[in-house]
## 1
Amino acid sequence: MMSYDFSVVLRFSDALTLGLVMTLKLTVLSILIGSVIGFAVALARTSSNGVLRFICATYVEFFRGTPVLVQLFWIFFCLPLILGVELSNLVSGVIALSLYMGAVSSETFRAALRTVGPEQHDAAIALGLPSHVEVTYVVLPQALLRAAPPLLSNSVSLFKESALVSAVGLADLMFVGQNISNTTGRPVEVLTIVALIYFVIAFPITRVVTVFERRMLRKLKA
Amino acid sequence: MGNTMTVAPAQGDGSALLCVKGLRMGYGPVEVLKGMDIEMKPGERVVLIGPSGSGKSTLLRVMMGLEQIQHGQITFGGDPYITADKGKTKIDIGVRKKIGMVFQHYTLFPHLSVLGNLILAPCKVAGESRSSASERARALLERLGLSHRVDAYPAQLSGGQKQRVAIARALMLDPKLMLFDEVTSALDPELVAEVEQVILQLAAQNMPMMIVTHDMWFAKNIASRVIFAAEGRIIEDGPPEQVLGNPREERTREFLERVFHIKT
């Protein structure tokens, strides 16, 4: 029987930390940019402009209907050819994951916007609120509150999906882990620790989502 | 009233607070209001009654600028503020802001506290300072017996409290006319009185109002004038003793008997 020596992993803690930082940088940037795209697309899909609605719907369905890995490969290898510019690995990774996050979160925002009922609009008109005040102080806060739990879930998914960038050579946590596991020949120890690092970060967030959701629904159920 | 009637600009005589002239509105082929004329004097409290589908609530929504109209004009204090013009409805928002409205289903903003609901419009539209608006809001809530709920959220309030907060929110904008659209219809019976009490208080301060209600006790106690409408037309219009006590129109009599079991 094989004996396991987890102290091997400790020797590479600096490299793993660098990988984790890359993963977090990539994920946080993509979540922020993706959420802005998602909200804009959700609003655009309520627009009266049919062309705009069609473009947005196509974008969303395309990115939801194709594997993230294929999207990553396409943006890493095809986009530079088409644009004729070299993109750094991180920039390509952020573009790919932001576009994916944008498509997924736009559905989240769309559902949240729908829950702000027409009677809220009536109240806003009755109080003489101009439409920019209505959007900023009535619609947006309610939509954001309702979207927050699913948006956090989307973010956790993206954090986990981000491991796919290792396939295109971006030195994230997964990529570093794989390298260490290959050079040391100790895949069990290294990959177990890598999995645990992902879990330790993702799990508390999913718990927060559950608690937050319960509290918020109580508050907004009026 | 003929379908082709045209409307003279309703400047009206200075004594009318509100003047509805030749009002017609509908959704596509379905006509909801089939030509309505109402002149309301300052200090009047008009109660609108009628079967469902008579257009009572629609009339209030039109007066609030919430619906498109096909024909007619409404003036307030002599100023035309809702005008049908070639299929479009023109609304003068400056004039319309003098009118406040409370709806059947509370329509409070659920993400804002009671105080937040009250000061949003004064701060963001009228440009009042937060401290000044909050001070007015607290004083108003105290008068309505809600000072202990200032920081509560709508979900934590009873139906009666929600509706009183909705009234307070409208009063924050210092309206010159209040519209109440079935404001007690969604309430449990034991909560109706506290809301009607607040409206009666307003009446005692001479606030002009137009009220749609199905509560006969309330109608009798608050109305200075009752309008009975059916199928988008005004059938009878007069003092409460007449319309509720001794109606001239057979349809009014029949409605009161059928719905309220009032033998006249």
## 2
Amino acid sequence: MLLSVEDIYVHYGRVPAVRGVSIGVSEGEIVCVVGPNGAGKSTTLLTISGVLRPSQGTINFDGQSIVGLTPEAVARHGISQVPEGRHVFTTLSVEENLRLGTRMRRDRAEIEADFKRVLELFPVLAERRRGAAGKLSGGEQQMLVIGRALLTNPRIMTIDEPSLGLAPNLVDRVYEVLLELRESRGLTLLIVEQSSERAIKAADRIYVLRSGEIQLEGDAADLQDGEKVRQAYFGFTEGVEHAGEATF
Amino acid sequence: MEVVVQVIISSLSLGSFYALGALGIGLLFGVLRLINFAHGDFITVGGFSLIVPATAVVAVPLILDFHPVALIICVVGVVVVWALASYFLLFRHIQTAPPAVLMIASVALSFSIQNLIIMIYSGRPKAVGLWPELTGVIPLSDKVQVPILQLVIVAVTWILLILLTIFLRRTPIGVEMRAAAEDFRMARMLGVNATRVIALAFVISGALAGIMALMYHTQTGILSFRGGVFLMLYAFIATVIGGMGSLIGAVVGGYVVGIFSTVLIAILPEGMRGFRDAFVFGLVVVILLARPQGLVPTRAFKERV
Amino acid sequence: MIDATTPLMQRIRHFWPVVNLCIGLLVITAIVVALDDRILARTLTEGLIRVVIVVALYMFIGNSGIMSFGHIGFMMIGAYATGWQTCCPYTREMFMPGLPGYLLDNSHHFVLAIFLAGLLSAFVALIAGIALMRLSGIAASIGTFAFLMIIYSVYLRWSTWTSGASSVIGLPQTTTPWVAYCYAVVTIFAAFFYSRSKFGLALRASRDDEVAAKAAGVNVIGQRLLAFVISAFFCGMAGGLFGHFLGMLTVDTFFLNLTLITLAMLVIGGMQSLSGAVVGVVVLTVVIDLLKNLESGMFGKDGFVLPTSSTWVVVGVVMMLIIIFRRSGITRNAELYWPFKSDITAEGALRRQS
């Protein structure tokens, strides 16, 4: 396992948001965590990245514990975060945004090559290179954030709801890019997603999170029909017979 | 006409002053959400560093006698050390606290510094003759005279603004600082070192306060333990008016406050002039209500306040 | 420790923090008065007036979570308003020639004067609060600070009513220790009943989670305004008491220093509890008095003497240390239930965590 989260509990004040969650991601894998709003998905990611601290449990990355590290230290380990809501720096130019991704690296020659590659991958960013990032459209901002995360040369990239607020065709494009990156450079991905269909299509493995607990875990291939996932996601099965049973 | 020229020049010079102060406060608000009430006291500390620490009435020059270049470096250095110490000893330990807690901590710091100065130098104001050659005037015509110092203040302010802009736009760490001011958490997720960026913001803020200390005390010629307080209050107003955390806003706010208060004095009837401060602070409340994001809005303010 | 098991005991326990505070202050007051030391009595009276101020601060800051830098402005309003009614009947026209005829010619009993002064403060708080209470968080704090600055500069220049930069001298010194004690007790009770009322509860709900409180139907602005007005009323009365304690009024008395000292007391005691407010005043008053004595050389001329102003440096530093190491203050934001078992409610537990 490249990243293994084991039995973590996270509290906001006294309110538990995540209870006993365990997630493992192997090198080169795409893992999706799906679940409804407030299930604890973002909390889990923020805990991995060092913004929140678990009250209990361990997080290991490549065999080393990363619990209690600051966000910048976690980033330096090679865990790149794309948090929810596309955090581009609106007042910085597109290029400045991208360059921020390279600040941890010392391999100058490689940086320039990677920089060119990202601009090739996202031609729209090359066009708007000098413009303010705040002027980009939602889809372009999502590309910028992914490009910036790529430039940190991550060993794993975690993405929180890449489809949030994007038109369906743009969401397709984002996933296309992510899959392409996995093919071309073996990128490991941990994606949080609300839409279970989307997750099943893209992921190798899936976790369903609801009310702060893992409800279901399995290979995407085994969950193709989606019924099990739906059941775990909503916490009940739809259908007349079940509704009838409930009255007894 | 003569009056108009005089008013323009003095409001520009006053505005420059407030702009510098507002920048010092705005930089820290940007990266730390700290409203630093002690900023004015950093200015005071810079002034007092010119003389030998003693409670005697007559000030004995210390840094004051140095070569001008050494003098500038020493005063700025002293203030920067104070600013850094206040970060590492105080604010660093509470940087995740709500802004109100940071604000009250800075009020406590300001109070402590003022009383420390009374303790060491006594509470009596002291005369200090810093660069008396700058206090002359340049006659533009028979009736219009421009104080040299006002021109110096405007010039120095713009040189510093340009330097600061170059630093923030052209250097990697400057870009990091802008990023951190906009979205600190995301910046940290990209590996930006929080402590380094904040410490640097304190260094710059302290350096600005040091330079202001020099200009301010050249103008007044008097050291007082409360010297910087009202300066800070006006600079603080400027940051609020301009938009908390926006550096362009700070500069705009500084000039708005400078011009507003100079013009108020010029147009208010005799009996009302004393109420200028009330009008200026009234403006703050109006701006907070009507445009809480300030004249130049930033994302930082919206998210953090 | 007594475990409150019967309903009656629980009722008693409910009120016990107030009893503790009032008895504690009563004992201190009685002892000091019995000692018959003029200087000590002055310290005590000043301390009791500060209890009124800091408890009033608690009513607003503790329950709303908004740091206010403006309440000393209400003290100023109250102090001068009592001055207009009670000060120096023969020289009033000299100090404050702009007063309307009625005020120039008539004096009120100081209890009535202080009450009316409190009402004036409350009225000003209502007007100012309608604007300021719309703001949240740091913007609200800035707003209250701007309020203090406005009151200060208006009173400084409004010399026909306030004598401006010079002082108004000759207020009857009617604030004795026992008078101050009575006002402190009244304020403590008012704060207790307010914060245990549905209004106080609603305001604390908005403090802990503004969005949730709004969703639950709490009129956040209205609740804040209510607390602001009530606390301004007591601050105004404290201003009147202070004027009748000093016997004179200056604008500078009611400015940044007093703001900081009273906030320091609240922060050091524990901002979110009534007991914290009172404990903060008591502790800091003792510390300040001790240090002041050291400054003025309590061990004789050759003994240990602290330099001038070091008292205030210490106060500032202690305040910073409390903010760093124990943000919930000496009381950890809990009320004093002793000898009953301490606060075991969910709210109490939460408070101690934060």
## 3
Amino acid sequence: MSAHRAITWLRRRLQPLATVLLGAVVLSGVPAERGHSQDLVADLSKHLVAITTGFTGTEVLLFGAVGQPADGSSPGEVAVVVRGPSTPVTMRRKSRVVGIWMNTASMTFERVPSFYAVAASAPLSQLAPPQLRQRNGIGLDALNISLPPAKASPNVAQEWRDALIRAKQRKGLYSASVRPVVFLGARLFRTEVYFPANVPTGSYQVETYLLRDGQVVSAQTTPLIVSKVGVEATLTRFAYEYAALYGLVAIIVALLAGWGGYALFRKA
Amino acid sequence: MQIYLPIAELSLDVFLLLGLGGVIGFLSGLFGVGGGFLMTPLLIFIGVPPPVAVATQANNVVASSISGVLAHFRRGNVDVKMGTVLLVGGLAGSTSGVSLFKLLSEIGQIDLVINLSYVLVLGTVGVLMTWEGVAAFLRTSRKLPARKLHQHNWAHGLPFKMRFHRSRLYMSALLPLGIGFGVGVLSAIMGVGGGFVLVPAMIYLLGMPTSVVIGTSLFQIIFVAANVTFLQAVQNQTVDVVLALMLLLGGVVGAQYGSRVGSRLPGETLRILLGVLVIGVALRLLYELVSVPADVYSIGVGA
């Protein structure tokens, strides 16, 4: 069975999801074929996570197919890494000063993904050697968010790094566990990525890796946009671009509400 | 039913927010205070980032105060002249307060300062209020003579004397200006109107008659809170109108019922109840300051 037949089957199964997009990926992927048939094709059920008034978090389905090696061996394992836009993050550490806990030390990480999640079809340690995971940032322990060496000794830096990951996990922005990538038969795979209600906005990168014998055989990057839409987007833009007017409107709304309450209850 | 708050960037339950507004509104109507000292810690507790909680609560204070001041205006319980002098101090104080807030956020001490201000200010006010309430309660039952309207002290030697007819006072404008300034700073940092500080200050420091104290404090709080809202919106973009609107809807209704119940309870009882409530909030926040944190590391706010 060729990858194309597998994809035809997949398209039928996932018809409502993103037929057109998948078709486009398949067509553009054809000339890139190497030795054996298409190695890896993957796509998302949606390319925009829209934050609306009722937004409480959402799941995005990632699905795809891997090619069968000519020698009939196993097609390999799949790992998926989702990364939010990187920003600088300042971490603070409290210590006890005259009986009161206060922030007494701080450390700034220059580039920290605002969101990070990993899914894989096998335990990460079996998937690839540490160097490879380190290079591609597969797994929280391999995530490249170290401090500049000048700032802290390695073990102190490690403490700050662990603290940053814990803090992000408390906010639900770094997933604590590796989600499963499920194979449907030998070729087709799928996994879900969960985005919580407090997901940061911006351009995300979804990287899908096909690994065989501890080597990356094929990789694909799919963009994903997380954005406020409708009223939420308008209000945020208003608050940042016309800050003074926004402040005045907020005050007027408060005055009207206060006066309205008074007038309403005086009559009653 | 969840609603997404665009500035706070998280979603919360609509009925939780309406209920919170309603309960705090009820208490604020009952005691004649803005209720910010309860609302701001509660908002932070349910996950709203502290800068957003403080700024949004300032906007809420505008609404709850206008509702109250209109009722007091009708009864002639507002000393506009005294209110204006307090207000001049309050505008200067709150403007410095918003800048101070930004500075403290940058150096990572804003949480500490917010908590410490709450513990110190609420602790002091709560103890004084309860003490006064209990003393007044014992006085009425023992039929002891009430104390003088106010004592003369060093403050009466200050220059720039002004006559305040409605408050029946002749005193230096510097004292109300200073009080206004101090409460303005607190208002910006703690996200409160400052009524619970202003009211005792007006009674004990300025010696104003109790009848005009609440109306006058509400009068000046409206403008100070509006100033804080405006400055926070312009400098920090932290006013969340969706959150404010949810809290307002509940608050406006709650306040009306609260003031009805409040008018039926004797003053001393109200004072003791409010004192105990204030001490409770102060103790809760004190516990947070001295107990070992779950994680000594945290992500800096506003970095």
